[in-house]
Amino acid sequence: MEFKRRELIFGAAAVVAGATSILPASAQKATTGKKTSWFAGTAVDNGVTFKTTNFAVIDKRWHKQMVKYKSSEPAGTVVVDTRHHFLYLIMENGTAIRYGVGVGRDGFQWFGRANIDRKALWPKWTPPPEMRKRNPDLPEYVAGGAPDNPLSARALYLFNNGDTGYRLHGTLEPGSIGRDVSSGCIRMFPEHVIDLYQRCPMGTAVQVLPHIADRAPPADAAQNG
User: Fold this and answer.
1) DSSP collapsed to 3 states, 46-102
2) Are β-strands 163-169 and 186-187 bridged in parallel, bridged antiparallel, or unpaired?
3) CB-facing half-sphere around the CA of 151: CA atoms within 13 A
4) DSSP annotation of 140
5) Judging by beta carbons within 10 Å of its beta carbon (0-12, 13-18, 19+), is residue 213 exposed, middle or buried?
6) Residue 199: φ, ψ to 5°
7) 129-187: pLDDT as tens digits
8) ∠ CA(74), CA(76), CA(82), 5° rounding?
9) Three-class SS of residue 142?
């Protein structure tokens, strides 16, 4: 199937225009005294208090970082390497910003090209009928910013001749990053999806690579071209 791609205008102006700050909550405190806690404390974003990720206990490969990345895709494109659990935002001069992600488990993956045609801060969550059929205990609706909303801080909606049903979004489960756990959507740490949201204007092109070992490039090749 051929996919129509939009022109992408990506630059400093887009970053500044979408900038959002995260302010420490006045009552910030660690959720537990144990060093192994997934959470470091709390912060406020757009009026919503949320748990911040304790990156001290997160494997460094899942941290946000600038890496070498040669690609035929233009700067500003998002590429998701589902095999290695990385999301790349392609920059100029053979580099990319790399984020660790959680991806779809067996039977729930989606691959192909799409565009970000909708963005939401603290999105509401409406589980699709097929998901509620598999999990009857799921609610019909969860308000944006609710502590049990699995989309967390941001959602970037993927469209390809209509809504694909797949999103790039946050997570309430930091331990799920680097794993095959979702129903097809791409999970990110809340801090990372907030950062990506700021960097991706409407129309951003997204390519999701197959979760098939013999079709995905080796990790070294993906990072170093």
Assistant:
1) CCEEEEEECHHHCCHHHCCEEEECCCCCCCCCEEEECCCCEEEEECCCCEEEEEECE
2) parallel
3) 22
4) S
5) exposed
6) -90, -15
7) 777 788 888 888 899 999 999 999 999 999 999 999 899 999 999 999 999 886 668 99
8) 90
9) strand
**Residue 217 half-sphere exposure toward CB, CA atoms < 13 A:** 16
CB contact at 8 A, 194 and 22: yes
The CATH code that applies to domain 12-224 is 2.40.440.10
Calculate the average pLDDT of the chain: 80
State both tokens at 129.
């009928």
143 close to 131: Cβ distance less than 8 angstroms:
no
Distance CA 224, CA 50 (A): 35
| Pairing assessment for the beta strands 95-100 and 65-68 based on DSSP bridges | antiparallel
DSSP per residue, 2-57 = ---------SHHHHHHT----EE-TT---S-S-TT-SEEEEEEETTEEEEEE-GGG
- 2 token code pair: 């051929």
198 token code pair:
């700021």
**Do 38 and 50 meet the contact criterion of CB atoms below 8 Å apart?**
no
Dump pLDDT digits (tens) for 183-216. Answer: 668 999 999 999 999 999 999 999 998 754 333 3
Give the residue numbers annotated as catalytic, written as ranges: 169, 185
